[in-house]
Specification:
heterodimer, A: mainly beta, Immunoglobulin-like, 7-stranded mixed β-sheet, 4-stranded antiparallel β-sheet, 11 strands, about 0% helix, B: about 110 residues, mainly beta, 6-stranded mixed β-sheet
Chain lengths: ~110, ~110
């Protein structure tokens, strides 16, 4: 099993551009999460999904959108990128009812 | 908003020393997790504690959950260079949306020869 995979690993965007961060898991996990990690700030939850077709906002959802058309994939869309979205983005997944979350390797995004 | 504060923020020690990292909150959590993160990688789960006062050991690492389930500590005995990394605590609340985690700000540990 590959676990949780994320692409791209690095990306530089200009202000106002859009992009999609890809996340996939092959563990048949129901729950998937998107976090951002800023220096000295820990990880903050952006969006989460409890299954295909169901998504909900986390702590910091503004400026982002998600969709979940399959159990495996949970892409994160950035519209009109802003410098405040410069961060490292992590996708995670977990089984329903379980406390454990499994993280991908992250995408480092810079908006200039 | 639930907050988790970790201390110290940075720790640089010599191989063989002992250390303790603290994770404190004013909120009650149903569980507390500790993760370790290396540069360029995602956090990796070390342990989950769920009962107030619970103590778990993982080789040289000892984790404790506070009696009131608001705080936790991580103690490393005889630290080794391989222990170097960012240690994150995360308080969890189980909801219909899964285990909602609130992460601490992290403790960057460097163990030198």
């Amino acid at each position: 099993n590959a676990g949780v995979t994320q692409t791209p690993k690095f990306r530089i965007l200009k202000i106002g551009q859009s992009m999609t961060l890809q996340c996939a898991q092959d563990m048949n996990h129901n729950y998937m999460y998107w976090y951002r990690q800023d220096p000295g700030m820990g990880l903050k939850l952006i969006y989460y999904s409890v299954g295909a077709g169901i998504t909900d906002k986390g702590e910091v959802p503004n400026g982002y959108n998600v969709s979940r058309s399959t159990t495996e994939d949970f892409p994160l869309r950035l519209e009109l990128a802003a410098p405040s979205q410069t961060s490292v983005y992590f996708c995670a997944s977990g089984l329903a009812g379980a406390r454990e979350q499994y993280f991908g390797p992250g995408t480092r995004l810079t908006v200039t | 908003t639930q907050l988790l504060e970790q201390s110290p923020q940075f720790l640089s020690i010599q191989e063989g020393e002992n250390l303790t990292v603290y994770c404190n909150s004013s909120s009650v959590f149903s569980s507390l997790q500790w993760y370790r993160q290396e540069p360029g990688e995602g956090p990796v789960l070390l342990v989950t504690v769920v009962t107030g006062g619970e103590v778990k050991k993982l080789k040289r690492l000892t984790f404790q959950f506070g009696d009131a389930r608001k705080d936790s500590s991580l103690h490393i005995t005889a630290a080794q260079p391989g222990d170097t990394g960012l240690y994150l605590c995360a308080g969890g609340i189980l909801t219909g949306g899964g285990n909602k985690l609130t992460f601490g700000t992290g403790t960057q540990l460097k163990v030198e020869l």
